[in-house]
């Protein structure tokens, strides 16, 4: 019988909860302290997703040996470029870096070298890679995670929230040290380095051309006039949300937008009878919503949106069997190869090779299938060197086998 591991609750930061850095003088002292510190720097950021418009940081937490922990208010200290320069030569340790990097870049903090403990956990085959679970599984410590979805734009921040925030970076470097050793032992350290570099090198996300098409439930909308209502309501909501600094869903839920598109209300009374418009914020802007619906109703046929926008990639995989049966067979074979490699190396299939790369390779394969041609195609699709080395040969073999059997 396996002996259960004792888990120790992590209740208080070493040195207590530091005061929030909220002015230029305090920030200058923090910069000096972290410049004099040694080793990697643990970094985390708290946002107010679901409460405020956008994804700006409302608290930044850092910890470094010799410097201790700092909690910085980026609202009163919106420029962390001096701190960024002070730790420019240090490895920055983050958990789920792709979530925090955009808001850190906005305030002048740009890591040059990085270790992502979540991504390391995925490469190592950990089934659950949330920070709390990783800390408990790897270090035997339990983090309190009750404030992860809090409104971090709140001022002043409650002491319990600050304690939670400080604890998020308390043992992040220790977690990094253990995971790095495991990566090295498993032969995956270079893989991880390539992945970390790829995350750092990913350019900021450009806004989608038609972001309103991501409205939840839009699949229920069957005609282009109703799609125009979705578009006009979405754009009106976005303007109000941006001006009010509120998350769009708090101004008007997606369900209300879709319901209005389906019902096509012509009067304010008809609009109020839609249950999804009963929220306080929705009622406050009834005239705006009705104006948006009326504007969509008045559009000429040439001004209506198309049912869908043409993409630059292959169609959804569930349509391949009808549109191109040969491509569907290639996709099935390639997915089987990636799944087998994922099992062998104990990691998720999407980390072995990006699903989009698999789809694009099999929808438009090289004219001549070989290890070299498949490798070149994968590199062009953004696969990392370790991924190409791992997958090019077995993928080429599987695709060539289909051609040889005459299944294509």
UniProtKB/TrEMBL annotation:
Gene3D superfamilies: HRDC domain (1.10.150.80), Ribonuclease H-like superfamily/Ribonuclease H (3.30.420.10). Residues 223-303 form the HRDC domain. The keyword Hydrolase applies. The keyword Nuclease applies. It comes from the Bacteria. Residues 301-322 are annotated as: Disordered. GO terms for molecular function: 3'-5' exonuclease activity; nucleic acid binding; nucleotide binding. Keywords: Exonuclease, Hydrolase, Nuclease. Pfam families: DNA_pol_A_exo1 (PF01612), DNA_pol_A_exoN (PF18305), HRDC (PF00570). SUPFAM superfamilies: HRDC-like, Ribonuclease H-like. CDD domains: RNaseD_exo. GO terms for biological process: nucleobase-containing compound metabolic process. This is 3'-5' exonuclease.
